[in-house]
């Protein structure tokens, strides 16, 4: 009688294991890429929501600041500095005098009028100490992402530094957006003030550095690497009046004339 062979040969088993390993690696890589993309999208969307929330807080802010009827919260200052972990992003209330017919604040640009109203993000508290106006909100980019500039720097990308000023007009209540590359580190100012150093109003001296003439582009780097080909452009359009001015720009460049109106983070 002819014997019937049962089981598998060593070659067949090895081939099966090899195919299974290839499939497993493919699934694992695909899953890893999917998780990475989801986290990156979440980081971008979360940053957009952070900026839009600041606009909402400016629009819906209470009329009085610091519990004093002669002071008004006019908006928000968002500072972008660099620390050992990457981005250091804080949001402060901007407080100033109440506009009236005797303080000479009428006329001029919004920033000029706010300057006359002695706007600041620092107030003197009881006992002669200084602190920020109200509560300070801190923001940390999600999933180790980094907020960077549009341009390269020494074969890499710089952490975005500067400040964003979103304020209401003292008279009309219209919201205005200004940006600067001037670093404003409120913590350092507070340390100097509380150390007995009279530095005047550091915020007021920085007002002349702010401009509303240009878009503000934030490049979201997904993993914080100094060099990355994947960077999403989150833009605040020049002169934005509300949260709709915060946009996620499409991935491709789009040149109109000599201006790139598409992704400036490529």
Describe the structure.
This protein has 266 residues and is of the alpha+beta class. It has one domain (10-260). It has helices at 10-59, 110-116, 186-194, 202-206; strands at residues 71-83, 86-97, 122-124, 130-132, 137-139, 146-152, 157-159, 162-168, 175-180, 216-221, 232-236, 246-248, 255-256, 259-260. It has a 5-stranded antiparallel sheet with strand order 5-2-1-8-9, with helices on one face. It has a 5-stranded antiparallel sheet with strand order 7-6-10-11-12, covered by helices on one side. A two-stranded antiparallel ribbon has the order 3-4.
DSSP strand (E) fraction?
25-35%
Order of helices and strands, N to C?
HEEHEEEEEEEHHEEEEE
Shape: elongated
Enumerate the strands of the largest sheet in spatial order, edge to edge or round the barrel: 5-2-1-8-9
What does this entry show, briefly?
With 266 residues, the protein is α+β, with helices and mostly antiparallel strands.
What key attributes describe this structure?
266 residues, alpha+beta, elongated, five-stranded antiparallel β-sheet
């Amino acid at each position: 009688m002819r014997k019937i062979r049962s089981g598998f040969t060593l070659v067949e088993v090895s081939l099966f294991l090899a195919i299974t390993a290839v499939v497993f690696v493919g699934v694992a890589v695909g899953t890893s890429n999917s998780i990475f993309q989801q986290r990156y999208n979440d980081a971008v969307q979360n940053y957009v929501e952070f900026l839009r929330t600041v606009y909402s807080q400016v629009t819906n802010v209470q009329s009085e600041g610091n519990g004093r009827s002669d002071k008004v919260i006019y908006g928000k200052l968002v500072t972008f500095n660099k620390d050992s972990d990457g981005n250091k992003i804080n949001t402060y209330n901007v407080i100033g005098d109440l506009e009236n017919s005797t303080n000479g604040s009428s006329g001029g640009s919004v920033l000029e009028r706010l300057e006359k109203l002695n706007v600041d993000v620092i107030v003197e508290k009881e006992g002669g100490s200084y602190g920020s106006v109200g509560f300070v909100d801190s923001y940390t980019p999600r999933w180790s992402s980094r907020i960077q500039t549009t341009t390269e720097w020494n074969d890499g990308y710089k952490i975005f530094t500067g400040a964003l000023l979103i304020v209401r007009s003292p008279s009309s209540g219209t919201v205005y957006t200004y940006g600067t590359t001037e670093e404003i580190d409120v913590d350092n100012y507070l340390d100097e003030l509380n150390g007995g150093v009279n530095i005047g109003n550091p915020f007021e001296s920085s007002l002349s550095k702010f401009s509303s003439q240009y878009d503000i582009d934030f490049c979201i780097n997904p993993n914080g690497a100094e060099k990355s080909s994947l960077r999403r452009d989150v833009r605040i359009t020049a002169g934005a009046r509300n949260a709709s001015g915060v946009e996620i720009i499409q991935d491709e460049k789009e040149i109109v004339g000599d201006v790139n109106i598409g992704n400036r983070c490529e």
